[in-house]
């Protein structure tokens, strides 16, 4: 429980209607999309402007109360669970797009704006905000920035980080700083903008962002290529890029994923093959036509058993939506669904897929794999049951082996989900102790009292990873 | 002078032939491309591998001796001058390209590789490394990374930062860390990769880098548009982008710059007009043709008096080379040439050019302006004489006013040259004290003894900027 005078001060800042500490409210914000990390906050505050956030952070710093900034809580790394209690800080009153600047191709927004709403708002002006995390219908742009969210268009267009030009941030001491701006170039000191992107709310609270926009590609086309052989599908991925084509999207789904996604979405996905690639190219009509033709050829050369171009944008959108629903679909299958995020260099996708299947067999567990193959970003997903302790031990061992294998192949423990509390025990695999020490130094410099989202990124113990989703 | 036992230890690490402390050697490395900051180092060391660099940094940390990592010293912000003495650390033995990976589209390189050599090496394989600083014929890739160098292709392709995927870095305490990798996505903790890019050698020594490559655009075309009116040229810049076209290059040169560049390069540049835009588009032939057609139209609509498409790649290359030689050309004109780097949102280029001319008139000094107009990145350049103290005072006042104006327009004090020692007194204009404090915290965390390139980025006093180039 918060000290009573702190509660009074917080209410004085945000108003009574924007302070909650009922049990019901606390329960709502005790978890994010990563259920097994449930932990109760002491209160939930919804500030209405930067000045209020600055006052809140000063207070919390003084009282040493944890602050967990939270968008819609769709992250899959236990990045927004109030593990050490304290205050959950919501962006729900900061939901305005402040400006779409068509001359500088930028959008300036508050953090609580819904991602899909933002994408549609710029689309109306013929502009394009590429990052499209699977959760975009629910997620908030501030959460995307905190997590450096990826998405299906990452291969050609990069991730959230590549679109953040400037930020307003409240630091733990209450200082308000502005980084970058509507600027294509800015080298005035260290790159604070990109340091805050993906810092998972551990360094400060982002209160405003200026994002880069692109002209909307004129057209796009989607291909579905079917394979009787996982390896052939994975090899196609490398072959496309080696042929100097960078598709906008290059997704991989294996048979078990296909099956459950089709059961869920019922759009007529093939479920008799071992794997599919969902490939999309965008741009001007001639280039798209040419690239799609070449890609189809490369798929066939690499033993695709069938290659079909989506007949309409409606059909293509259905395919994309089906792909985005993979987690929801898989989560229906077994009581516990562990969605992982292991990323390797693109050339190692075939090896990684083989290793995942070998490891699954070794530990006698059920893993299906899908993901952003063009980015080397795979989501091996384990369907299990958390109540079966013996199986869970095998699952844990298997996942650890998958991470170790990813890193051994030149990869990383998380390509787009973040570290949060869930991956913290594995961070040393990627960074070594010296790398973690360097990051701890930054954390200490910004937040010496460790009030900002404590327990995230940096592991306290060797606590193992926990399941993502449970029925 | 270094303590004698330190000298002996350094020689034991790098070998006698890679340690220099003769007066002649020290003189050579007492300045970079920013002459008025000359200051003598105590020694120059040229390590041959990462382990040697680690040993050197440990020693220097122990003895509290400054280390200045230095590529070719082409920076224009006094970023590599040994202001507090100590050791200049050269990359000249670290000149190998370690791998060009055509499947992952990456190049892994040591820091001492010449930028142009790197660009040509990947070009031979049909690949493209876009960052092209004007100094690329001389500069080293390690220096480019330290400075986050820009270039002529920044508008469409971004700057050095956008191509650095992974680094090996030796920290001031001797720790060797590896960040990122051949990975399109990696969110394992804070973005150390981008923190090191542009950190001007103040946080550690970069010993290896993995850079992203693109497929080489099939073709490119170049337009030269002539204007009798500066404002019309500046407005064309915004109009092109507002029309949803992102050219690869969009350069601006005013009449005085044109005149001196033509005198220097003798390629037949028009010298009778007030300004030119040099515009390039690349991509597949149809898109380039279409974009170039539209761009030509937009130029005419915005009152270009002549618009011509370069007849051949040789002609286009001559134009680019002429543009890259602007600094060398201008430096011949008067004893002292002050090349500045003020950047504004693209939509403010017209206002900024007008302000520069108004400020030049107000202080009765001669400024000509060129730069990467598409990026809003202008290089107002003052031809003066450092021996004329009275004029220099006016120059200083004028430049300060230019920076203040750039920031007031939503711009920055440096778009691509870095802060170094030269811009340090102005950093607060962009960042405020809270922003500088946040950066100081990072510096302190990495380098508590301040051995890495001391005197850069952070101002000791309110020392004013100094001239760039003197005949």
UniProtKB/TrEMBL annotation, chains A, B:
<dbReference type="InterPro" id="IPR016169">
    <property type="entry name" value="FAD-bd_PCMH_sub2"/>
</dbReference>
<comment type="similarity">
    <text>Belongs to the FAD-binding oxidoreductase/transferase type 4 family.</text>
</comment>
<dbReference type="GO" id="GO:0071949">
    <property type="term" value="F:FAD binding"/>
</dbReference>
<dbReference type="InterPro" id="IPR016171">
    <property type="entry name" value="Vanillyl_alc_oxidase_C-sub2"/>
</dbReference>
<dbReference type="InterPro" id="IPR036318">
    <property type="entry name" value="FAD-bd_PCMH-like_sf"/>
</dbReference>
<feature type="domain" description="FAD-binding PCMH-type">
    <location>
        <begin position="37"/>
        <end position="216"/>
    </location>
</feature>
<keyword id="KW-0285">Flavoprotein</keyword>
<protein>
    <submittedName>
        <fullName>Glycolate oxidase subunit GlcD</fullName>
    </submittedName>
</protein>
<dbReference type="GO" id="GO:0003973">
    <property type="term" value="F:(S)-2-hydroxy-acid oxidase activity"/>
</dbReference>
<dbReference type="Pfam" id="PF01565">
    <property type="entry name" value="FAD_binding_4"/>
</dbReference>
<dbReference type="InterPro" id="IPR004490">
    <property type="entry name" value="GlcD"/>
</dbReference>
<dbReference type="InterPro" id="IPR016166">
    <property type="entry name" value="FAD-bd_PCMH"/>
</dbReference>
<keyword id="KW-0560">Oxidoreductase</keyword>
<dbReference type="InterPro" id="IPR006094">
    <property type="entry name" value="Oxid_FAD_bind_N"/>
</dbReference>
<dbReference type="InterPro" id="IPR051914">
    <property type="entry name" value="FAD-linked_OxidoTrans_Type4"/>
</dbReference>
<dbReference type="InterPro" id="IPR004113">
    <property type="entry name" value="FAD-bd_oxidored_4_C"/>
</dbReference>
<dbReference type="Pfam" id="PF02913">
    <property type="entry name" value="FAD-oxidase_C"/>
</dbReference>
<dbReference type="InterPro" id="IPR016164">
    <property type="entry name" value="FAD-linked_Oxase-like_C"/>
</dbReference>
<keyword id="KW-0274">FAD</keyword>
<dbReference type="GO" id="GO:0009339">
    <property type="term" value="C:glycolate oxidase complex"/>
</dbReference>
